Amino acid sequence: MSMKRGFGFTRRAAVVALMASVALAGCGSKGDAPSGDAVKAAAAPGGVEKPVLKLGFIKLTDMAPLAIAKEKGFFAEEGLNVTLEPQANWKVLLDGVIGGQLDGAHMLAGQPIAATIGYGTKADLIAPLSLDLNGNAITVSNKVWDMVKPNLPMEGGKPKHPISAAVLQPVVASFKQQGKPFNMGMVFPVSTHNYELRYWLAAGGLNPGFYTPGDVGGTVDADVQLSVTPPPQMPATLEAGTIEGYCVGEPWNQAAVQKKIGVPIITDNEVWHDNPEKVFGLRKDFADKYPGTTAAMLRAIIKAQQWLDADGGKNRAEAVKILSQPNYVGADEKVIAASMTGKFTFEPGDTRDAPGFNIFFDKNAGYPFYSDAIWYLTQMRRWGQIPEDHDDQWYIDQAKAVYRPDLYLAAARGLAEKGVIPADAIPETDGFKPVDNGFMDHIPYDGHKPNAYIQSLKIGLKKGQKVTASGVTGS
């Protein structure tokens, strides 16, 4: 399998994308797209069945491909008149897609997977495109940081990274002695953030708790209590003392740094190197009914992803300005730029190079790998959201029902044939990545062998085990 490396694609492709956006400049600025006869004319050659669309998103940096597809005219190029609508939280967004109020959305990777297997809400959703790699971090309160920092190994006068959650063990013990729970926040029960935070805690010897059937709290046997908080509310919740830390996407870790209320202790790239993050999700019946429209959306988003990673990130400053608008992320430009322009600030005076913190196009970021979907399913089983054992083929079948590389490849190959994206940016793969050794605890992950992987994890459910309100039972 070819895996494209680097932060840029090709200069020729950048020029093609730039020329296309210039050609559309007459269509309007700040997201104005052609409508009426102009959209119909553009739609006709591409077979777009539904040119007027509404897509949802949460106010996070990694919704950037949708904003860029809108603002740079890539949706309009494909004959689409798209409205982008921010959603209050992930549950509202999910319900909007399932109910048809939204035609598609910037989604948590776990949402279409969970819906398909019937965890939470049952619905047939698909993910034909991955939006990005990396982009999250785990932040702790100043109080907690002050408790752990004196014991951290230093390197060049700064804390050595990655920082293990083992440093929290005495802090959690101190809270317990005082009769207080140690609370942390994440954004949704099936979010990448939940699983990354749980992975980090468990790798450091702390149990983040198990889910019982019908339970969305996941606190059985927990050393650390995790709860749901919408991303933009994370800093305020931390400042109020309701939680002592959280895992969230940007810019809400950098917001804590700017407000001087918390310190990012580790990035998700350090927990799992080049981990998949959000997906573009929609209903299966929508894709079946409107194949031309679906293909057009994917082409537009792929072009936006390419633009975001072009020429070593030369467009990131412009992307920051676009995302800072109140109709998108609505955070201060400096806060968004602090993680999106190749740097990441952990605390005042500790800003480090992080060229891969947000990856949208490079490293096959857009391809929806089955093995990524299977990893999420292993974590659902690990923590009890999937209450019973299943054989390896079940995991593979569920992944193939949700992740649709066939749709991605059709769109990407069409762009490559026209010279819009380079052909070598499209991976040659069976949908599975090679064995992944990029986790901070060095436990290898093979997507072909999900049960063996689950068994290899020190904390978590094992074969034959179930969760009840009184704890874990079974062999």
From TrEMBL:
SUPFAM superfamilies tied to this protein: Periplasmic binding protein-like II
Family annotation (InterPro entries): NrtA/CpmA_ABC-bd_dom
Cellular compartment(s): Endomembrane system
PROSITE patterns according to UniProt: PROKAR_LIPOPROTEIN
Residues making up the signal peptide according to the UniProt record: 1-25
This protein's UniProt keywords: Cell inner membrane, Cell membrane, Membrane, Signal, Transport
Protein name in UniProt: Nitrate/nitrite transport system substrate-binding protein
Source species of the chain: Novosphingobium mathurense
